[in-house]
Every structure is written in structure tokens, then in C-alpha cells.
Design brief:
mainly alpha, two-stranded antiparallel ribbon, 2 strands, about 55% helix, about 5% strand, globular
């Protein structure tokens, strides 16, 4: 595990960014202030500029420079939990206005 952490410490994972988007939007919704909305927008722009592939599927891991990485991070498949869960919560929060 330590060797894996040393090898992959700087990669960018799609699920982490989806959870960050939800957390920032939730913080803003509960009155954290303008900083939460500003960071939500920054993370949103980065996430949607970095992870979606032109053909529609998201790349689940990228280098710090944004290049796709084709290797197993934790599971041999894309995690079916974090991204849909976070975006369902985001849609719900945005629907509240």
C-alpha cells in the first residue's frame, strides 16, 4: 500500500472532484459564505474541463497535467457510487435555489 501511495500520490481522480463539488455546494447552501460558492465554481470548471472525454465517457484518473492514465487505482472498474451520488445531491441542492 505504501508503494502504491508513493507511485500515485499526484494523480487526479474523478470521484474526489465530484465529492468536492457536493461538499462545497452544501457548505454554501448552509451559509458558509461566498468563498464556498467561488470554490465550487473553480472546482466545477476544472472538473468539467479535465475529466469528461470528447466521446462522452469520463476519464476516471488523470495526471496532474491532465493526461489520461490507464491503470487500476483501487477497483478494476470505475466506481459506480461516488460520482452519481454526488451529482444527484448537487441536482437536488441546485433545485432548491
Amino acid at each position: 500500500m505504501i508503494a502504491k501511495l508513493r507511485q500515485d500520490w499526484d494523480t487526479k481522480l474523478w470521484w474526489v472532484h465530484s465529492e468536492a463539488l457536493y461538499a462545497l455546494l452544501l457548505a454554501h447552501h448552509h451559509g458558509a459564505g461566498d468563498w464556498a460558492w467561488e470554490w465550487y465554481q473553480r472546482v466545477h470548471d476544472y472538473t468539467f474541463r479535465t475529466f469528461p472525454a470528447p466521446e462522452g465517457e469520463w476519464i476516471h484518473i488523470r495526471t496532474r497535467e491532465g493526461a489520461p492514465v490507464d491503470k487500476v487505482v483501487a477497483l478494476p472498474v470505475k466506481d459506480p457510487f461516488h460520482v452519481p451520488r454526488a451529482f444527484l445531491h448537487i441536482i437536488r441542492l441546485l433545485g432548491r435555489g
